[in-house]
Amino acid sequence: MQKSTNNAGKKGTGIGRRHLLKGAGVLLGAEAAAAPSASADDEDSQPSIEGLWGTVVSSPGLPSFQALETFGGGGVWTGSGQTNLTPAALASTAWGVWTSLGNHKFKVIARFWIYTPTAVPVGYAAINFTYTLSADGKHYAGVGTTSSFDTNNNPLGPPAVTYDNGVRIA
Predict the structure, then answer these.
(1) Along the chain (170 residues), what's the average pLDDT of each consecutive run of 10 residues?
(2) Residues of the chain with CATH 2.40.128
(3) When you count CB atoms within 10 A of the terminal residue's CB, does the N or C end of the chain come out lower?
(4) How many Å apart are CA 61 and CA 55, to the nearest integer?
(5) Residue 119's pLDDT is what?
(6) 3-state class (DSSP) for residue 74
(7) pLDDT for position 81
(8) 105-121 b/e (C-beta count within 10 Å ≥ 16 → b)
(9) pTM for the model
(10) Is residue 79 within 8 Å of residue 68, measured between CB atoms?
């Protein structure tokens, strides 16, 4: 018969159950003290932008298009628009990150690949948007720039002002 080496809580071992629980309480107390306190102004008090959104993206002088965008947990963002099916505007899904700026505002930085009408890669586009979420968390208005670059990182023109207005799907 093998003898147990777990001495926690046994008398005479120097490590008692009370000692272990006290240590755990100190550890948990230290974590709670290190956690920031919540207030009405914290970003936790604002609606979350996380979720799936149906959007309309527009830029002056260009046709608007519908898109789907996901603001995922941990700051992951993806977007895919109707232009992906148009030979003259072939593009990949956009991949990026989002961060909270507080006061119902969020920042998205993302990239997507762009192609010729015959699907030859020509470079990428970079987006830099700021979104303002409605008080009820069901709509947002976004504005920012879309800049296109060739495969050598040379600009393909000036940045275009772009608008992105969304309605929460889920």
Answers:
(1) 44 43 39 39 72 96 92 96 71 95 97 90 96 97 97 96 98
(2) 43-168
(3) N
(4) 18
(5) 85
(6) helix
(7) 84
(8) bbbbebebbbbeeeeee
(9) 0.71
(10) yes
Nearest-angstrom CA–CA distance, 109 and 80? 14
Per-residue model confidence (pLDDT) at position 152: 96
- The sign of the dihedral angle between the CA atoms of 25, 26, 31, 33 is positive
| The domain made up of 43-168 is a member of CATH 2.40.128 | yes
C-alpha R_g of the chain: 25
* Structure-block tokens of residue 127: 């987006």
What's the helix, strand, coil split of the chain in %, to 5?
A: 20, 50, 35
Q: Which long-range contacts (CB under 8 A, 24 or more apart) does 78-86 make?
A: 79/55, 79/110, 79/112, 81/57
Identity (one letter) of the amino acid at 126?
A
Identity of residue 158 = P
Distance CA 130, CA 34 (A): 31
> What pLDDT sits at residue 44?
56
Question: What DSSP state is assigned to residue 133?
Answer: E
